[in-house]
Design goal:
By secondary structure, the protein is mainly α. Helices cover 52% and strands 1% of the residues. A two-stranded antiparallel ribbon has the order 1-2. A two-stranded antiparallel sheet has the order 3-4. β3 (483-484) and β4 (490-491) form a beta hairpin. The longest helix is centred in the N-terminal third of the chain and has 36 residues, at 201-236. Mean pLDDT is 85; it is low at 1-10, 262-274 and 744-767.
């Protein structure tokens, strides 16, 4: 039997009168010691003697180790819920931040402890420089510390992209793009880092592998080597192994001298040894623990940022705390985030690179950007590596301290200049505000629409009329159309040359269209080729002779066609008014417009479903369609024409649908009912294509062109043309004027025509 196990099988400790709990603890402790030796190992570590004694200058390695442990614990927790692909990376981070209980806290601690790891490692390096801790025999202590800083920076660089949000995506594109500056191998290195020609799924898997394996494991290995070389140098150093900066050395001497004077006789004037050896416990452990507690408090303050108010929208409250998460990355080059910036630790280098132009260096053909990114940083890195050798020289330490001070101050000043420049840049502030609004919007959509769809979070924004609609309108419509609304509906044209579209086809818009003072003005047709058209003259003339009740009925019928205010009103009075208005439209408007099977096709917009979602989809896709403006189309391009060859389309089908919904203000808001679910674009486009009438086209001969113009300018709406030899007669849909082809004969409209109850005189229509 093992001697150390005697108490397990021997006499019970309780029989000797001891406390059962204490005695059981002793038994368990003795058993662990016998089997593992862990207690003696702990006593050896706690009781180890520190050459030169305890000091606050010894806390730096333990601070780095503490942050590394925090990084490891939180990193493993995040790893369990993270999926590194272009369609799931942002989505998994969103799940961690807003749905996983406590996920926002773990992610925030991981993020900010990484930033503190860079800061603490950098301060540790400065401590080694100013205290001379890089000089022989501590060369490897210095070099491994440099490796720790490089790995800490690499962890921030690779982790930034893993969010797959607009800032990390755009900033990483710029950083990795610097590889192409290297002559000869730059393009190959770029493709190796990216995993292809462009950022995508393989880029994420590469960066994720670097982040969790190469950098994380490498940090532990390098830190272990650093710790070994640090302990070894303490045993070999002639100064007792304690490396102190000048300030700590002075404070230590002062404190020791004060302690030495207490309790000594007046005759004793010799202070105790300043560098006496002391055990690790409890003095050094206490100092380390204070630093650990301080670091944790700083991390929690950064995570909670109590100085900022919590967002009230979706995702607000505690989940709004922690690390920032912007909108998901969009691979479209047009969606590049102009305000993308690196982390604070790279801001100085970022500002330095902005001091150099992108133009090629004369005679070399290489961009000047290679100087700050690779040449200067490479020289600084080589200098840092050579500092232990420079210190062999008599004045080497002074040179090293001066050089490190210069580099540190320069980086601090460049960093401050970078932040100051951004604070004064209105374009930067606008881009940041837009990105934050997009981030909040995607959270609102995900929370209000039942989660993130299988297509990914980016599809929420691509299908959201509130966010994508203004961009499409600004890109394709505002050159002609004004949108004088509020918020996202306020997009103003410099020189409007087409009707304004704010609240299109709603009651107030229809009232303006049928207002004789407005219809020919700049808000409607005043800046178009239809400024003196039959429509304008009709509204300003004959339409004014209608009773007010008839006008109101026509307006309500058109509003009902657009589908506003629900299904045409619920009250019997409202339904009767709409029905009467539809009869009036058939009586007064089908002279020019198609409505419910009546009216000419090919030159004027149909009033069936006027202003509805399907109607807007149709006219945006193809305004030259025979049920819209046909040959009379005034400058509006065809935006969609082919489902087989998308390359010929100015807009894709989903973009046309989003633009139509944007004009109708059909988007999700938490405080209002869900917008109606619309049919797929291709189904609507297919129906319009099936209804496409034949539209006359101009021929080559003057006669053919004259015939085309006769129909295009709407002469054929009222006047038949039947007297031209060799030409097929043109019959008016609803004759209201004479036949220019000759006197009335059999089968022709008489000259002058006979009037009917449904055919007003041409002079009245065209007045």
């Amino acid at each position: 039997m093992n001697v150390g196990s005697a108490n397990i099988q021997g006499e019970s400790p309780e029989a000797k009168g001891g406390c059962p709990i204490v005695c059981a603890g002793k038994v368990v402790g003795q058993w662990l010691e016998d089997r593992t030796g862990i207690i003696s190992a702990y006593r050896k570590i706690a009781g180890r003697i520190l050459p030169g004694g305890v000091s606050w200058c010894r806390v730096w390695p333990s601070a780095v180790l503490f942050l590394l442990i925090v990084q490891a614990i939180t990193g493993v927790c995040l790893w369990m819920h993270y999926s590194p692909s272009a369609q799931t990376a942002w989505e998994s981070v969103y799940y961690i931040q807003y749905q996983l209980p406590g996920g926002w806290l773990v992610r925030g601690i991981h993020h900010y402890s990484a930033q503190l790891l860079v800061a603490v490692t950098g301060l540790y390096l400065l401590h080694l420089v100013f205290s001379g801790g890089y000089r022989p025999p501590r060369e490897w202590v210095w070099w491994t510390a440099l490796g720790l800083l490089a790995l800490a920076l690499g962890g921030c660089l690779t982790g930034d992209l893993l969010l797959w949000d607009v800032n990390g995506y755009s900033a990483s594109q710029v950083r990795v793009g610097f590889l192409t500056l290297l002559p000869g191998i730059g393009d190959d290195l770029y493709r190796l880092a990216v995993g292809g020609q462009t950022f995508g799924h393989h880029t994420l898997t590469r960066f994720f592998a670097l982040h969790v394996s190469v950098i994380a494991l490498g940090f532990w290995v390098v830190f272990g080597l650093h710790w070994y070389f640090l302990r070894r140098s303490e045993r070999l150093a002639a100064d007792g192994g304690l490396v102190q900066c000048p300030a700590c050395r002075w404070l230590r001497q002062w404190w020791k001298s004060r302690l030495g004077s207490v309790g000594q006789s007046e005759a004793s004037t010799t202070p105790p040894s300043v560098y006496a050896d002391e055990p690790y416990w409890p003095g050094q452990f206490f100092r380390n623990a204070v630093v650990w507690l301080g670091l944790m408090i700083i991390i929690l303050l950064l995570v909670l940022h109590p100085w900022k108010p919590a967002a009230k929208e979706a995702g607000g409250g505690l989940a709004d705390r922690g690390a920032r998460l912007l909108a998901p990355a969009d691979p479209d080059p047009a969606a590049f985030y102009a305000a993308a910036r690196p982390e604070w630790s790279f801001r100085g280098l970022y500002q330095l690179s902005n001091l150099f132009p992108s133009n090629p260096i004369p005679g070399l053909g290489i961009s000047w950007k290679i100087v700050p990114i690779f040449v200067l940083t490479g020289l600084v890195a080589l200098f840092f590596l050579a500092m232990p050798f420079i210190a062999w020289w008599k004045w080497g330490h002074v040179v090293n301290v001066a050089a490190v001070t210069f580099v540190t101050v320069a980086l601090i000043l460049l960093t401050l200049v970078s932040y100051w420049h951004d604070a004064a840049d209105s374009h930067y502030r606008e881009a940041v505000a837009e990105a934050e609004a997009m981030a909040q919007r995607v959270k609102v959509l995900a929370a209000g629409l039942g989660g993130i769809p299988p297509q990914g979070a980016l599809s929420l924004l691509h299908q959201d009329p509130k966010t994508r609609g203004p961009k499409l309108f600004a890109s394709h419509c505002v050159i002609c159309h004004d949108l004088p609304g509020e918020s996202v509906m306020n997009i103003r044209a410099e020189k409007p040359s087409a009707p304004q579209l704010y609240r299109f086809a709603r009651r107030e818009w229809i009232q303006g269209l049928l207002d004789p003072a407005k219809v020919g003005g700049p808000e409607y047709f005043g800046n178009t080729r239809f400024a003196a058209s039959a429509m304008v003259r009709y509204v300003q003339g004959r339409y004014q002779n209608l009773p007010d009740s008839d006008k109101a009925a026509i307006i309500e019928a058109l509003v009902a066609e657009a589908g506003w205010d629900g299904p045409s009103g619920e009250s019997p009075v409202q339904k009767e008014l709409v029905a009467r208005g539809r009869d009036l439209i058939s009586q007064h408007c089908t002279q020019c417009h198609v409505y419910r099977g009546e009216g000419p096709r090919g030159f004027t917009p149909t009033l069936d479903g006027y202003g509805s979602y399907a109607w807007l989809v149709g006219i945006i896709a193809d305004p030259t369609h025979g049920l819209f403006y046909g040959a009379r189309n005034d400058r509006m391009p065809v935006y969609w024409s082919s489902a087989v060859d998308p390359g010929v389309n100015r807009l894709q089908g989903d973009e046309v649908a989003v633009l139509a919904q944007f004009l109708r203000e059909e988007w999700f808001e938490p405080d209002r009912p869900l917008p109606p679910k619309r049919e797929p674009f291709l189904m609507i486009a297919g129906r319009w294509d099936g209804l496409r009438p034949t539209v006359p086209i101009p021929g080559d001969s003057p006669a053919e062109r004259a015939r085309w113009l006769y129909q295009k300018e709407l002469c054929s709406l009222c006047h038949s043309m039947t007297g031209v030899e060799g030409e097929e007669p043109i019959m008016a849909y609803r004759p209201a004027g004479g036949d220019p082809g000759g006197p009335g004969t059999s089968g022709r409209t008489p000259w002058p025509p006979r009037r009917s109850s449904h055919s007003p005189p041409a002079a009245e229509i065209c007045r």
